[in-house]
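Exam prep: given the inputs below (a chain plus iron/sulfur cluster), describe the expected output before reading on.
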Amino acid sequence: MATTTIKLARLNGEPEIFHSIQGEGVSMGIPSVFVRASLCNLHCIWCDTDYTWNWENTPWKHEKDTDPQYRKFKKEDYLIEMNTDQVAEKIAAIPCPRVIITGGEPLLQDEAWQSLIEHLSLKSSDYYFEVETNGTITPSHELDQKVHQYNVSPKLTNSGNSPTLRINAEALAFFSKSPKVWFKFVVASESDLAEINELITEHCLPRQRILLMPEGRDNATLEKRRLWLAEICREQGFRYSDRLHIQLWGSKRGV
Ligand code: SF4
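Solution:
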């Protein structure tokens, strides 16, 4: 089996691999190992994993730019390159069969994930692999055969990305037909909802596979939006998801 290199987010000098509980979406509450890819093809202004892409000397804007303490990230401090067999060893040392491949945008490194999954699958047939993606890149057939679930979060106007960057009709056509896909959207306003409904119509997204989550990075904000959004889900046939990790851990990284 081919071993290749993979670019992961670096947290306190180590690759960002951690054992936690899935905090949102259809697998919420399930113990999981998270592996965070570095690099992203989008630049959402509110991104909370901006240390995967907002490198020094890049033009990207972030809402934290107004904070005098905020600095863009030194790539060499926040990106670590490793061999996939080494990453597999680290994951296999954690007694948990559910692996969530997140980012950044993991599908920028399609072949590397194939290799990692192959290494892990040789160690145990119990592994279940979820990929969290922004839905702009179609996975290869080879990777698709190895992945059990996709959590696809297309980005809306409020992300600050241009429509040509954040919407890829071909990739959405792939995901909308895949039985492995759950879509999830973070919703802050009525205009977000209108945009989601436009995307559903334009790209034939399956409404029964769509989860809506209230926007909020603290409990107080989530509290204000929960009932409002739950009512919308009831009326419009969406599935509701809370954001358990924010209730439990706030914005702390790597838990
Ligand atoms: S797609 Fe995800 S990782 Fe990339 S910038 Fe947006 S929120 Fe951040």
